Amino acid sequence: MSDRIDVRKTYKLVVKGAFVRSESGRSYEVTDATGAFWANVAQASRKDLREAVVAARGAQRSWWAMTAYNRGQVLYRLAEMAEARRAELAEHVAVAEGIDPVVASDAVARGIDRIVWYAGWTDKVAQVLGGANPVAGPYFNFSLPVPCGVVGVIAPTDSSFEGFVDAVLAPLATGNTVVALASETRPTPAVLLGEMSATADLPGGVLNVLTGRRDELAPVLCEHEDVDGVDLDGADETVGALASLAAGSIKRVLRPRSSAGDGDVRRLRAFVETSTVWHTIGQ
Amino acid sequence: MDEVTTTPLRSVGATSAVRFAAHGSGPRIESEVELRSVLASLSGVDAVGLEARAAKLATRSIKRSSKLAALDLAIAMVDLTTLEGADTPGRVASLCAKAARPDPRNHEVPSVAAVCVYPDLVATAKRALGDAPVAVASVATAFPSGRASLAMKLADVAEARSAGADEIDMVIDRGAFLAGRLGQVFDEIVAVKAACGPAHLKVILETGELVTYDNVRRASWLAMLAGADFIKTSTGKVPAASTPPVALVMLEAARDFAESTGRVVGVKLAGGIRSAKDAIRYLVLVNETAGTAWLTPERFRFGASSLLNDLLMQRLKQQRGAYVRVDEFSGD
After folding, report:
1. Closest chain B residue to A228, measured at CA
2. How many CA atoms, within 13 angstroms, populate the side-chain half-sphere of residue B181?
3. What is the reported pTM?
4. CATH topology (fold) of B47-319
Protein backbone atom coordinates (compact mmCIF):
# COMPACT_ATOMS: atom_id res chain seq x y z
CA MET A 1 0.00 0.00 0.00
CA SER A 2 3.00 2.27 0.36
CA ASP A 3 2.94 3.27 -3.34
CA ARG A 4 -0.67 4.38 -3.20
CA ILE A 5 -1.18 7.99 -4.23
CA ASP A 6 -2.60 10.28 -1.57
CA VAL A 7 -6.25 11.25 -1.95
CA ARG A 8 -5.98 14.80 -0.76
CA LYS A 9 -8.93 16.85 0.26
CA THR A 10 -9.59 20.51 -0.39
CA TYR A 11 -11.94 21.88 2.23
CA LYS A 12 -14.85 23.70 0.70
CA LEU A 13 -17.37 26.24 1.90
CA VAL A 14 -20.73 25.09 3.22
CA VAL A 15 -23.43 27.31 1.73
CA LYS A 16 -27.12 26.43 1.49
CA GLY A 17 -26.43 22.78 2.24
CA ALA A 18 -23.94 22.46 -0.63
CA PHE A 19 -20.16 22.22 -0.59
CA VAL A 20 -18.86 24.87 -2.92
CA ARG A 21 -15.58 26.41 -3.92
CA SER A 22 -15.26 30.14 -3.58
CA GLU A 23 -16.79 31.93 -6.58
CA SER A 24 -13.46 33.75 -6.74
CA GLY A 25 -11.66 30.44 -7.32
CA ARG A 26 -9.26 31.25 -4.49
CA SER A 27 -7.95 28.87 -1.88
CA TYR A 28 -5.26 29.15 0.78
CA GLU A 29 -2.93 26.87 2.64
CA VAL A 30 -3.52 25.99 6.25
CA THR A 31 -0.59 24.78 8.30
CA ASP A 32 -0.41 22.68 11.43
CA ALA A 33 0.83 24.11 14.70
CA THR A 34 4.47 23.61 13.64
CA GLY A 35 4.00 25.50 10.38
CA ALA A 36 4.01 22.46 8.09
CA PHE A 37 1.41 22.17 5.30
CA TRP A 38 -1.85 20.66 6.51
CA ALA A 39 -4.62 21.36 3.99
CA ASN A 40 -5.90 23.57 1.19
CA VAL A 41 -9.00 25.47 2.17
CA ALA A 42 -11.38 27.57 0.05
CA GLN A 43 -10.88 31.31 0.51
CA ALA A 44 -14.32 32.89 0.48
CA SER A 45 -14.95 36.26 -1.14
CA ARG A 46 -17.41 38.99 -0.21
CA LYS A 47 -19.80 37.57 -2.80
CA ASP A 48 -19.66 34.12 -1.20
CA LEU A 49 -20.56 35.82 2.06
CA ARG A 50 -23.46 37.60 0.42
CA GLU A 51 -24.75 34.32 -1.00
CA ALA A 52 -24.45 32.71 2.42
CA VAL A 53 -26.51 35.48 4.00
CA VAL A 54 -29.17 35.10 1.31
CA ALA A 55 -29.25 31.36 2.02
CA ALA A 56 -29.47 31.92 5.77
CA ARG A 57 -32.27 34.46 5.36
CA GLY A 58 -34.15 32.10 3.08
CA ALA A 59 -33.92 29.23 5.55
CA GLN A 60 -34.71 31.15 8.73
CA ARG A 61 -38.48 31.20 8.51
CA SER A 62 -38.86 27.47 7.99
CA TRP A 63 -36.20 26.66 10.65
CA TRP A 64 -38.15 28.69 13.20
CA ALA A 65 -41.46 27.27 11.94
CA MET A 66 -40.34 23.76 12.90
CA THR A 67 -41.46 22.71 16.34
CA ALA A 68 -38.89 23.30 19.05
CA TYR A 69 -38.93 19.57 19.74
CA ASN A 70 -38.13 18.82 16.09
CA ARG A 71 -35.29 21.37 16.05
CA GLY A 72 -33.88 19.63 19.09
CA GLN A 73 -33.99 16.29 17.32
CA VAL A 74 -32.15 17.70 14.31
CA LEU A 75 -29.42 19.17 16.50
CA TYR A 76 -29.17 15.93 18.44
CA ARG A 77 -28.63 14.14 15.15
CA LEU A 78 -25.75 16.54 14.48
CA ALA A 79 -24.21 15.24 17.71
CA GLU A 80 -24.74 11.68 16.47
CA MET A 81 -22.91 12.48 13.26
CA ALA A 82 -20.07 14.13 15.15
CA GLU A 83 -19.81 11.19 17.51
CA ALA A 84 -19.32 8.84 14.55
CA ARG A 85 -16.41 10.99 13.30
CA ARG A 86 -14.96 11.75 16.71
CA ALA A 87 -11.51 10.34 15.93
CA GLU A 88 -11.22 12.42 12.77
CA LEU A 89 -12.30 15.57 14.61
CA ALA A 90 -9.79 14.86 17.37
CA GLU A 91 -6.98 14.46 14.85
CA HIS A 92 -7.84 17.79 13.26
CA VAL A 93 -8.03 19.57 16.59
CA ALA A 94 -4.71 18.04 17.72
CA VAL A 95 -2.93 19.03 14.50
CA ALA A 96 -4.48 22.50 14.28
CA GLU A 97 -3.89 23.47 17.89
CA GLY A 98 -0.67 21.50 18.38
CA ILE A 99 -1.96 19.75 21.47
CA ASP A 100 -1.67 16.22 22.79
CA PRO A 101 -4.09 13.80 21.05
CA VAL A 102 -5.63 12.80 24.37
CA VAL A 103 -6.30 16.43 25.28
CA ALA A 104 -7.74 17.03 21.80
CA SER A 105 -9.96 13.98 22.12
CA ASP A 106 -11.30 15.31 25.41
CA ALA A 107 -11.98 18.70 23.82
CA VAL A 108 -13.93 17.06 20.99
CA ALA A 109 -15.92 14.97 23.47
CA ARG A 110 -16.81 18.12 25.41
CA GLY A 111 -17.81 19.81 22.14
CA ILE A 112 -20.11 16.95 21.18
CA ASP A 113 -21.64 16.97 24.66
CA ARG A 114 -22.17 20.68 24.16
CA ILE A 115 -24.15 19.98 20.95
CA VAL A 116 -26.38 17.60 22.92
CA TRP A 117 -26.76 20.24 25.63
CA TYR A 118 -27.92 22.87 23.12
CA ALA A 119 -30.20 20.30 21.41
CA GLY A 120 -31.91 19.88 24.76
CA TRP A 121 -32.40 23.63 25.11
CA THR A 122 -34.55 24.13 22.01
CA ASP A 123 -37.84 23.36 23.78
CA LYS A 124 -36.81 24.82 27.13
CA VAL A 125 -35.65 28.29 26.15
CA ALA A 126 -39.20 29.64 26.23
CA GLN A 127 -39.74 28.51 29.83
CA VAL A 128 -36.49 30.06 31.05
CA LEU A 129 -36.29 33.26 29.01
CA GLY A 130 -40.03 33.79 28.61
CA GLY A 131 -42.90 33.86 31.09
CA ALA A 132 -46.42 34.83 32.01
CA ASN A 133 -46.62 38.40 33.25
CA PRO A 134 -49.13 39.68 35.83
CA VAL A 135 -51.11 42.57 34.38
CA ALA A 136 -53.86 44.79 35.79
CA GLY A 137 -56.72 43.61 33.60
CA PRO A 138 -58.60 40.53 32.44
CA TYR A 139 -55.77 39.41 30.15
CA PHE A 140 -53.03 36.87 29.91
CA ASN A 141 -49.75 38.48 29.06
CA PHE A 142 -46.90 36.32 27.80
CA SER A 143 -43.30 37.11 27.01
CA LEU A 144 -41.94 34.79 24.34
CA PRO A 145 -38.35 34.59 23.14
CA VAL A 146 -38.23 34.71 19.32
CA PRO A 147 -35.09 34.53 17.18
CA CYS A 148 -33.36 37.68 15.89
CA GLY A 149 -33.04 36.11 12.43
CA VAL A 150 -29.66 35.71 10.76
CA VAL A 151 -26.64 35.60 13.07
CA GLY A 152 -23.04 36.05 11.95
CA VAL A 153 -20.37 34.23 13.92
CA ILE A 154 -16.68 35.11 13.93
CA ALA A 155 -15.41 31.83 15.36
CA PRO A 156 -12.57 31.70 17.88
CA THR A 157 -9.11 30.40 17.03
CA ASP A 158 -7.98 29.18 20.45
CA SER A 159 -10.76 26.58 20.67
CA SER A 160 -11.21 25.42 17.10
CA PHE A 161 -13.96 22.84 17.72
CA GLU A 162 -15.48 23.37 21.14
CA GLY A 163 -15.50 27.14 20.74
CA PHE A 164 -17.01 26.85 17.28
CA VAL A 165 -19.75 24.55 18.58
CA ASP A 166 -20.59 26.94 21.38
CA ALA A 167 -20.78 29.98 19.14
CA VAL A 168 -22.83 28.29 16.41
CA LEU A 169 -25.18 25.97 18.27
CA ALA A 170 -26.56 28.62 20.62
CA PRO A 171 -28.14 30.79 17.90
CA LEU A 172 -29.29 27.65 16.06
CA ALA A 173 -31.01 26.34 19.17
CA THR A 174 -33.00 29.55 19.57
CA GLY A 175 -34.24 29.42 15.96
CA ASN A 176 -31.73 31.67 14.24
CA THR A 177 -29.85 30.71 11.10
CA VAL A 178 -26.09 31.16 11.04
CA VAL A 179 -23.34 32.39 8.76
CA ALA A 180 -20.14 31.32 10.51
CA LEU A 181 -16.67 32.52 9.62
CA ALA A 182 -14.31 29.73 10.73
CA SER A 183 -10.98 30.52 12.33
CA GLU A 184 -8.60 31.69 9.61
CA THR A 185 -5.66 29.59 10.78
CA ARG A 186 -7.51 26.56 12.19
CA PRO A 187 -10.60 26.15 10.03
CA THR A 188 -10.84 22.43 9.37
CA PRO A 189 -12.72 21.27 12.52
CA ALA A 190 -15.39 23.88 11.75
CA VAL A 191 -15.66 22.77 8.11
CA LEU A 192 -16.02 19.16 9.26
CA LEU A 193 -18.96 20.15 11.47
CA GLY A 194 -20.44 21.97 8.49
CA GLU A 195 -20.11 18.78 6.44
CA MET A 196 -21.87 16.82 9.17
CA SER A 197 -24.75 19.29 9.18
CA ALA A 198 -25.66 18.08 5.68
CA THR A 199 -26.24 14.54 6.93
CA ALA A 200 -27.97 15.68 10.11
CA ASP A 201 -31.16 16.87 8.38
CA LEU A 202 -30.29 20.50 9.00
CA PRO A 203 -32.20 22.22 6.18
CA GLY A 204 -29.88 23.86 3.61
CA GLY A 205 -28.93 27.40 4.58
CA VAL A 206 -29.51 26.98 8.33
CA LEU A 207 -25.77 26.59 9.02
CA ASN A 208 -23.36 28.12 6.52
CA VAL A 209 -19.62 27.85 7.13
CA LEU A 210 -17.15 30.11 5.36
CA THR A 211 -13.37 29.94 5.44
CA GLY A 212 -11.04 32.74 4.43
CA ARG A 213 -9.33 35.91 5.61
CA ARG A 214 -10.96 37.33 8.70
CA ASP A 215 -9.88 40.88 7.95
CA GLU A 216 -11.46 40.68 4.49
CA LEU A 217 -14.76 39.05 5.47
CA ALA A 218 -15.56 40.06 9.05
CA PRO A 219 -16.14 43.77 8.27
CA VAL A 220 -18.50 42.83 5.41
CA LEU A 221 -20.39 40.46 7.69
CA CYS A 222 -20.71 43.07 10.41
CA GLU A 223 -21.79 45.78 7.95
CA HIS A 224 -24.32 43.58 6.16
CA GLU A 225 -27.72 45.09 6.87
CA ASP A 226 -29.53 41.78 6.50
CA VAL A 227 -27.58 40.20 9.36
CA ASP A 228 -29.38 40.70 12.66
CA GLY A 229 -26.65 39.86 15.13
CA VAL A 230 -22.95 39.04 15.33
CA ASP A 231 -20.94 36.96 17.78
CA LEU A 232 -17.45 38.48 17.86
CA ASP A 233 -15.82 35.67 19.84
CA GLY A 234 -12.92 35.30 17.41
CA ALA A 235 -12.52 38.97 16.55
CA ASP A 236 -9.67 39.47 19.06
CA GLU A 237 -8.11 42.92 18.61
CA THR A 238 -10.73 43.95 16.01
CA VAL A 239 -13.74 43.69 18.35
CA GLY A 240 -14.12 47.44 18.75
CA ALA A 241 -13.92 48.21 15.04
CA LEU A 242 -16.31 45.41 14.11
CA ALA A 243 -18.79 46.36 16.82
CA SER A 244 -18.95 49.91 15.52
CA LEU A 245 -19.54 48.62 11.98
CA ALA A 246 -22.36 46.45 13.35
CA ALA A 247 -23.83 49.51 15.07
CA GLY A 248 -24.48 51.05 11.64
CA SER A 249 -27.39 48.67 11.17
CA ILE A 250 -28.28 48.33 14.88
CA LYS A 251 -27.23 44.69 15.19
CA ARG A 252 -27.07 42.65 18.34
CA VAL A 253 -23.40 42.26 19.23
CA LEU A 254 -22.06 39.54 21.51
CA ARG A 255 -18.63 40.51 22.73
CA PRO A 256 -16.13 37.83 23.73
CA ARG A 257 -15.97 36.89 27.39
CA SER A 258 -13.58 34.42 28.90
CA SER A 259 -14.64 30.95 29.98
CA ALA A 260 -18.36 30.45 29.78
CA GLY A 261 -18.92 27.75 32.35
CA ASP A 262 -21.34 24.88 32.20
CA GLY A 263 -24.93 26.00 32.47
CA ASP A 264 -24.22 29.47 31.19
CA VAL A 265 -27.15 30.64 29.05
CA ARG A 266 -25.43 33.88 28.01
CA ARG A 267 -25.21 32.74 24.40
CA LEU A 268 -28.82 31.50 24.30
CA ARG A 269 -29.93 34.87 25.60
CA ALA A 270 -27.80 36.80 23.12
CA PHE A 271 -29.80 36.38 19.94
CA VAL A 272 -33.43 36.34 20.97
CA GLU A 273 -35.95 39.17 21.05
CA THR A 274 -38.82 39.21 23.47
CA SER A 275 -42.23 39.19 21.86
CA THR A 276 -45.10 40.14 24.14
CA VAL A 277 -48.51 38.62 23.50
CA TRP A 278 -51.80 39.70 25.07
CA HIS A 279 -54.75 37.37 25.19
CA THR A 280 -58.12 37.74 26.82
CA ILE A 281 -58.89 35.39 29.68
CA GLY A 282 -61.59 32.96 28.55
CA GLN A 283 -64.95 32.32 30.17
CA MET B 1 -50.98 22.20 -47.41
CA ASP B 2 -54.57 21.72 -46.36
CA GLU B 3 -54.23 24.11 -43.41
CA VAL B 4 -53.72 26.97 -45.85
CA THR B 5 -57.36 26.92 -46.79
CA THR B 6 -58.32 27.95 -43.29
CA THR B 7 -56.47 31.23 -43.62
CA PRO B 8 -57.34 34.29 -45.65
CA LEU B 9 -53.77 34.46 -46.95
CA ARG B 10 -53.65 33.57 -50.62
CA SER B 11 -52.22 30.10 -50.88
CA VAL B 12 -51.09 30.58 -54.46
CA GLY B 13 -48.38 32.95 -55.46
CA ALA B 14 -44.76 33.17 -56.33
CA THR B 15 -42.23 31.99 -53.76
CA SER B 16 -40.63 35.33 -54.11
CA ALA B 17 -38.41 36.82 -51.47
CA VAL B 18 -39.84 39.42 -49.15
CA ARG B 19 -40.46 42.74 -50.82
CA PHE B 20 -38.91 45.32 -48.60
CA ALA B 21 -40.72 48.57 -48.25
CA ALA B 22 -38.45 51.57 -48.38
CA HIS B 23 -40.55 53.69 -46.03
CA GLY B 24 -39.76 51.61 -42.99
CA SER B 25 -43.12 49.95 -42.50
CA GLY B 26 -41.49 46.61 -43.14
CA PRO B 27 -41.97 43.97 -45.77
CA ARG B 28 -45.40 42.88 -46.96
CA ILE B 29 -46.25 39.22 -46.91
CA GLU B 30 -48.90 38.42 -49.45
CA SER B 31 -49.38 34.69 -49.02
CA GLU B 32 -48.65 31.81 -46.73
CA VAL B 33 -46.34 30.37 -49.37
CA GLU B 34 -44.38 33.58 -49.26
CA LEU B 35 -44.28 33.51 -45.48
CA ARG B 36 -43.03 29.94 -45.53
CA SER B 37 -40.35 30.73 -48.04
CA VAL B 38 -39.10 33.66 -45.97
CA LEU B 39 -39.00 31.58 -42.79
CA ALA B 40 -37.38 28.68 -44.66
CA SER B 41 -34.67 31.02 -45.89
CA LEU B 42 -33.55 31.70 -42.30
CA SER B 43 -30.41 29.79 -41.46
CA GLY B 44 -30.55 27.17 -38.71
CA VAL B 45 -29.27 28.00 -35.25
CA ASP B 46 -25.97 26.46 -34.14
CA ALA B 47 -27.20 25.48 -30.68
CA VAL B 48 -23.79 24.62 -29.24
CA GLY B 49 -22.18 27.78 -30.54
CA LEU B 50 -25.15 29.84 -29.37
CA GLU B 51 -25.03 28.50 -25.83
CA ALA B 52 -21.27 28.91 -25.69
CA ARG B 53 -21.50 32.54 -26.80
CA ALA B 54 -24.29 33.30 -24.33
CA ALA B 55 -22.24 31.71 -21.54
CA LYS B 56 -19.11 33.61 -22.59
CA LEU B 57 -20.87 36.96 -22.56
CA ALA B 58 -22.24 36.18 -19.09
CA THR B 59 -18.70 36.28 -17.72
CA ARG B 60 -18.26 40.00 -18.39
CA SER B 61 -17.71 41.97 -15.24
CA ILE B 62 -19.33 45.39 -14.90
CA LYS B 63 -17.91 47.55 -12.14
CA ARG B 64 -18.52 50.76 -10.22
CA SER B 65 -19.94 53.71 -12.15
CA SER B 66 -20.78 51.49 -15.14
CA LYS B 67 -22.62 49.16 -12.81
CA LEU B 68 -24.61 52.01 -11.30
CA ALA B 69 -25.53 53.22 -14.81
CA ALA B 70 -26.51 49.67 -15.79
CA LEU B 71 -28.70 49.31 -12.70
CA ASP B 72 -30.51 52.59 -13.46
CA LEU B 73 -30.96 51.58 -17.09
CA ALA B 74 -32.33 48.19 -16.04
CA ILE B 75 -34.79 49.87 -13.64
CA ALA B 76 -36.00 52.13 -16.45
CA MET B 77 -36.52 49.03 -18.63
CA VAL B 78 -38.68 47.11 -16.19
CA ASP B 79 -42.30 46.29 -17.01
CA LEU B 80 -43.45 45.85 -13.44
CA THR B 81 -45.81 42.94 -13.68
CA THR B 82 -48.56 41.35 -11.66
CA LEU B 83 -50.53 38.63 -13.42
CA GLU B 84 -52.09 36.62 -10.63
CA GLY B 85 -55.59 35.37 -10.11
CA ALA B 86 -55.44 37.05 -6.71
CA ASP B 87 -54.72 40.56 -8.05
CA THR B 88 -56.82 43.22 -6.36
CA PRO B 89 -57.27 46.92 -7.20
CA GLY B 90 -55.34 47.72 -4.00
CA ARG B 91 -52.42 45.59 -5.02
CA VAL B 92 -52.31 47.15 -8.49
CA ALA B 93 -52.47 50.62 -6.95
CA SER B 94 -49.48 49.93 -4.70
CA LEU B 95 -47.63 48.42 -7.66
CA CYS B 96 -48.29 51.61 -9.61
CA ALA B 97 -46.99 53.76 -6.77
CA LYS B 98 -43.84 51.69 -6.79
CA ALA B 99 -43.56 51.89 -10.59
CA ALA B 100 -43.71 55.68 -10.57
CA ARG B 101 -41.24 56.10 -7.72
CA PRO B 102 -39.35 52.84 -7.14
CA ASP B 103 -37.33 54.26 -4.25
CA PRO B 104 -39.45 56.89 -2.52
CA ARG B 105 -36.44 58.25 -0.62
CA ASN B 106 -34.33 58.83 -3.70
CA HIS B 107 -35.62 60.93 -6.58
CA GLU B 108 -32.65 60.01 -8.74
CA VAL B 109 -33.99 56.50 -9.22
CA PRO B 110 -35.87 56.47 -12.54
CA SER B 111 -39.45 55.30 -12.98
CA VAL B 112 -39.96 51.92 -14.56
CA ALA B 113 -41.11 51.72 -18.19
CA ALA B 114 -44.56 50.27 -17.63
CA VAL B 115 -46.82 48.29 -15.37
CA CYS B 116 -48.28 45.12 -16.84
CA VAL B 117 -51.67 43.83 -15.66
CA TYR B 118 -54.73 41.90 -16.82
CA PRO B 119 -57.25 43.87 -18.96
CA ASP B 120 -59.81 44.28 -16.16
CA LEU B 121 -57.24 46.14 -14.04
CA VAL B 122 -56.03 48.53 -16.75
CA ALA B 123 -58.42 51.28 -15.68
CA THR B 124 -57.32 50.91 -12.06
CA ALA B 125 -53.68 51.18 -13.10
CA LYS B 126 -54.35 54.18 -15.31
CA ARG B 127 -56.09 55.97 -12.45
CA ALA B 128 -53.36 55.10 -9.96
CA LEU B 129 -50.55 56.27 -12.24
CA GLY B 130 -52.12 59.63 -13.11
CA ASP B 131 -49.51 61.81 -14.79
CA ALA B 132 -46.57 59.57 -13.96
CA PRO B 133 -44.35 58.78 -16.97
CA VAL B 134 -45.21 55.09 -16.81
CA ALA B 135 -47.13 53.25 -19.53
CA VAL B 136 -49.83 50.71 -18.81
CA ALA B 137 -49.40 47.40 -20.59
CA SER B 138 -52.12 44.79 -20.63
CA VAL B 139 -51.90 41.15 -21.53
CA ALA B 140 -54.66 40.09 -23.89
CA THR B 141 -55.72 37.43 -26.41
CA ALA B 142 -56.66 34.76 -23.87
CA PHE B 143 -53.43 35.07 -21.89
CA PRO B 144 -51.56 32.87 -21.04
CA SER B 145 -52.61 29.92 -23.22
CA GLY B 146 -53.90 31.80 -26.25
CA ARG B 147 -56.52 29.13 -26.75
CA ALA B 148 -59.62 31.03 -27.79
CA SER B 149 -61.28 32.06 -31.01
CA LEU B 150 -59.97 35.11 -32.84
CA ALA B 151 -63.18 36.98 -32.05
CA MET B 152 -62.66 36.50 -28.33
CA LYS B 153 -59.04 37.51 -28.59
CA LEU B 154 -59.97 40.69 -30.40
CA ALA B 155 -62.65 41.44 -27.80
CA ASP B 156 -59.98 40.98 -25.13
CA VAL B 157 -57.76 43.51 -26.90
CA ALA B 158 -60.65 45.93 -27.39
CA GLU B 159 -61.46 45.83 -23.68
CA ALA B 160 -57.87 46.60 -22.74
CA ARG B 161 -57.69 49.38 -25.32
CA SER B 162 -60.94 51.01 -24.24
CA ALA B 163 -59.71 50.99 -20.64
CA GLY B 164 -56.71 52.97 -21.81
CA ALA B 165 -53.87 50.45 -22.24
CA ASP B 166 -50.82 51.95 -23.95
CA GLU B 167 -49.28 48.60 -24.77
CA ILE B 168 -50.80 45.20 -25.52
CA ASP B 169 -48.94 41.96 -24.74
CA MET B 170 -50.52 39.25 -26.88
CA VAL B 171 -49.71 35.54 -26.87
CA ILE B 172 -49.34 33.56 -30.08
CA ASP B 173 -51.21 30.31 -30.57
CA ARG B 174 -48.31 27.92 -29.90
CA GLY B 175 -50.42 24.92 -30.84
CA ALA B 176 -51.03 26.37 -34.29
CA PHE B 177 -47.37 27.31 -34.69
CA LEU B 178 -46.12 23.85 -33.73
CA ALA B 179 -48.73 22.19 -35.96
CA GLY B 180 -47.43 24.21 -38.89
CA ARG B 181 -50.41 26.52 -39.28
CA LEU B 182 -48.12 29.52 -39.68
CA GLY B 183 -50.62 31.51 -41.70
CA GLN B 184 -53.12 31.35 -38.87
CA VAL B 185 -50.58 32.62 -36.35
CA PHE B 186 -49.56 35.37 -38.77
CA ASP B 187 -53.11 36.47 -39.46
CA GLU B 188 -53.97 36.61 -35.79
CA ILE B 189 -51.04 38.90 -35.11
CA VAL B 190 -52.04 41.11 -38.05
CA ALA B 191 -55.62 41.27 -36.78
CA VAL B 192 -54.54 42.06 -33.22
CA LYS B 193 -52.13 44.70 -34.48
CA ALA B 194 -54.99 46.35 -36.33
CA ALA B 195 -57.15 46.21 -33.20
CA CYS B 196 -54.35 47.81 -31.15
CA GLY B 197 -54.50 51.06 -33.08
CA PRO B 198 -51.79 53.35 -31.71
CA ALA B 199 -51.02 51.00 -28.80
CA HIS B 200 -47.71 49.17 -28.99
CA LEU B 201 -48.02 45.47 -29.64
CA LYS B 202 -45.75 43.00 -27.88
CA VAL B 203 -45.97 39.44 -29.17
CA ILE B 204 -45.27 36.71 -26.64
CA LEU B 205 -43.67 33.68 -28.31
CA GLU B 206 -43.57 31.50 -25.15
CA THR B 207 -40.15 30.19 -26.11
CA GLY B 208 -40.28 27.51 -23.41
CA GLU B 209 -42.95 25.76 -25.49
CA LEU B 210 -41.32 26.20 -28.88
CA VAL B 211 -38.83 23.37 -28.23
CA THR B 212 -35.96 24.43 -30.52
CA TYR B 213 -33.88 27.55 -31.12
CA ASP B 214 -34.77 27.26 -34.82
CA ASN B 215 -38.42 27.61 -33.88
CA VAL B 216 -37.62 30.64 -31.72
CA ARG B 217 -35.87 32.28 -34.66
CA ARG B 218 -38.75 31.47 -37.04
CA ALA B 219 -41.42 32.63 -34.59
CA SER B 220 -39.50 35.86 -34.00
CA TRP B 221 -39.40 36.60 -37.71
CA LEU B 222 -43.02 35.61 -38.15
CA ALA B 223 -44.10 38.01 -35.41
CA MET B 224 -41.96 40.85 -36.73
CA LEU B 225 -43.19 40.33 -40.30
CA ALA B 226 -46.77 40.41 -39.01
CA GLY B 227 -46.21 43.82 -37.44
CA ALA B 228 -45.09 43.28 -33.84
CA ASP B 229 -43.54 46.31 -32.15
CA PHE B 230 -41.86 44.04 -29.61
CA ILE B 231 -41.15 40.33 -29.46
CA LYS B 232 -41.35 38.88 -25.98
CA THR B 233 -40.01 35.60 -24.65
CA SER B 234 -42.52 34.29 -22.23
CA THR B 235 -45.74 34.63 -20.31
CA GLY B 236 -43.87 33.81 -17.11
CA LYS B 237 -46.36 30.98 -16.58
CA VAL B 238 -44.18 28.12 -17.83
CA PRO B 239 -41.05 26.87 -16.03
CA ALA B 240 -38.58 27.35 -18.90
CA ALA B 241 -38.82 31.05 -19.58
CA SER B 242 -36.10 33.52 -20.51
CA THR B 243 -32.64 32.09 -20.90
CA PRO B 244 -29.55 33.83 -22.26
CA PRO B 245 -29.39 31.67 -25.44
CA VAL B 246 -33.04 32.38 -26.24
CA ALA B 247 -32.47 36.09 -25.65
CA LEU B 248 -29.48 35.93 -27.97
CA VAL B 249 -31.52 34.32 -30.77
CA MET B 250 -34.26 36.93 -30.44
CA LEU B 251 -31.84 39.85 -30.30
CA GLU B 252 -30.10 38.55 -33.42
CA ALA B 253 -33.47 38.26 -35.11
CA ALA B 254 -34.40 41.84 -34.17
CA ARG B 255 -31.00 43.09 -35.37
CA ASP B 256 -31.19 41.21 -38.69
CA PHE B 257 -34.77 42.29 -39.22
CA ALA B 258 -33.84 45.94 -38.70
CA GLU B 259 -30.87 45.60 -41.04
CA SER B 260 -32.84 44.03 -43.86
CA THR B 261 -36.12 45.93 -43.55
CA GLY B 262 -35.29 49.17 -41.74
CA ARG B 263 -38.05 48.57 -39.20
CA VAL B 264 -36.96 48.47 -35.57
CA VAL B 265 -38.57 45.89 -33.32
CA GLY B 266 -37.90 45.76 -29.58
CA VAL B 267 -37.23 42.71 -27.43
CA LYS B 268 -38.80 41.99 -24.05
CA LEU B 269 -37.55 39.27 -21.75
CA ALA B 270 -39.96 37.95 -19.18
CA GLY B 271 -40.03 35.14 -16.69
CA GLY B 272 -37.31 33.93 -14.36
CA ILE B 273 -35.17 37.07 -14.27
CA ARG B 274 -34.88 37.82 -10.56
CA SER B 275 -31.43 39.16 -9.83
CA ALA B 276 -29.67 42.37 -10.79
CA LYS B 277 -26.72 40.24 -11.83
CA ASP B 278 -28.84 38.42 -14.42
CA ALA B 279 -30.31 41.70 -15.65
CA ILE B 280 -26.85 43.17 -16.20
CA ARG B 281 -25.78 40.03 -18.04
CA TYR B 282 -28.73 40.48 -20.39
CA LEU B 283 -27.76 44.11 -20.95
CA VAL B 284 -24.31 42.87 -22.01
CA LEU B 285 -26.02 40.48 -24.44
CA VAL B 286 -28.07 43.35 -25.86
CA ASN B 287 -25.05 45.56 -26.28
CA GLU B 288 -22.94 42.87 -27.93
CA THR B 289 -25.70 41.53 -30.18
CA ALA B 290 -28.11 44.25 -31.21
CA GLY B 291 -25.87 47.18 -30.26
CA THR B 292 -26.12 50.26 -28.08
CA ALA B 293 -29.14 51.50 -30.03
CA TRP B 294 -31.15 48.79 -28.28
CA LEU B 295 -30.07 49.91 -24.80
CA THR B 296 -33.18 51.98 -24.27
CA PRO B 297 -36.61 51.21 -22.80
CA GLU B 298 -38.13 51.90 -26.23
CA ARG B 299 -36.34 48.83 -27.59
CA PHE B 300 -35.63 46.55 -24.67
CA ARG B 301 -37.65 45.59 -21.60
CA PHE B 302 -37.60 43.24 -18.66
CA GLY B 303 -40.97 41.84 -17.63
CA ALA B 304 -40.54 41.15 -13.94
CA SER B 305 -41.81 41.69 -10.44
CA SER B 306 -39.16 40.65 -7.90
CA LEU B 307 -36.29 41.83 -10.13
CA LEU B 308 -37.02 45.47 -9.31
CA ASN B 309 -36.32 44.97 -5.61
CA ASP B 310 -32.97 43.36 -6.30
CA LEU B 311 -32.02 46.18 -8.66
CA LEU B 312 -32.92 48.70 -5.95
CA MET B 313 -31.00 46.74 -3.31
CA GLN B 314 -27.88 46.54 -5.46
CA ARG B 315 -28.17 50.24 -6.27
CA LEU B 316 -28.32 51.07 -2.59
CA LYS B 317 -25.41 48.72 -1.94
CA GLN B 318 -23.31 50.63 -4.48
CA GLN B 319 -24.02 53.84 -2.60
CA ARG B 320 -23.79 52.65 0.99
CA GLY B 321 -20.99 50.15 0.60
CA ALA B 322 -22.80 47.63 2.79
CA TYR B 323 -25.19 44.89 1.73
CA VAL B 324 -28.82 45.86 2.23
CA ARG B 325 -31.77 44.24 4.01
CA VAL B 326 -34.31 42.39 1.87
CA ASP B 327 -37.21 44.19 3.55
CA GLU B 328 -35.76 47.61 2.77
CA PHE B 329 -38.25 47.71 -0.13
CA SER B 330 -41.90 46.77 -0.29
CA GLY B 331 -42.78 43.26 -1.41
CA ASP B 332 -45.13 44.19 -4.24
Report:
1. B325
2. 16
3. 0.83
4. TIM Barrel (3.20.20)
